[in-house]
Write a structure and sequence with these properties.
7 helices, 24% helix, Chorismate lyase, 10 strands, alpha+beta, two-stranded antiparallel sheet, six-stranded antiparallel sheet, 259 residues, Arc Repressor Mutant, subunit A
Amino acid sequence: MNSKTPHSFPASAPAAPSPTPGLALYAQVKEHIARRIQDCEWPPGHRLPSEQELVAQFGVARMTVNRALRELVGQGKIVRVPGVGSFVAEAKPHSTLLQVASIASDIRGRGHEYGFSLISAEQIPAAPDVAAWLDIRVGENVFHCICLHLENGLPVQFEDRYVNLRAVPAILDQDFSKITPSEYLVRHVPYDEIEHLVDAVLPTPEQAQRLAMDPDDPCLQLTRRTWKRGTVINYLRLLHPGLRYRLASRFAADGTHVA
């Protein structure tokens, strides 16, 4: 979805369709929107009428419209961006699980605009859980950064990364306004082992705000560790809004990754 140039809903909304016998009011609203999407009247990225406009168009209660929109979100037909509006969903972008993929390359490969924001970057002592993941001593200094990755201006990935400074001391001297931490590590410290864990989680209030999503909507969390010659290089958690992102892999029967 291109949130920068969404298709606008006409100033004068079309009249509501004739009621479909036997359908509940919310289902009639839902069917009307779904039909316009299916018939390509509203293409991917199209901004839907506001709840208030739909209430006026159909002559129903706001909670009726809200239920219709919530069910369309659940079916993946639309996405709702808090404070912005509802949009016809594009096909969900995805990242592979079998390799360290560059989200920047993935986004640009789709012909979309990639954006990156470095929220914080600092040297901190490792807490017990971080030390365990990195296989280092508790209190040993690590590099910690939090980043946000955007597609066409819409946040799609929240990155929380810890790097083993014993393995990559030079990371403290990098300018991450010119290169992302992920790109730097792939170029200068190539891994020879990788571990991926996937969980469904609810975002924290800060994460939900950063990802422009409802805090009650689920996230896909990809936890990654990489090794080089038996030493853990980094540990990170990547959060993706579950309603507008997916994780996928394709491989042959012998385990070979298929591009």
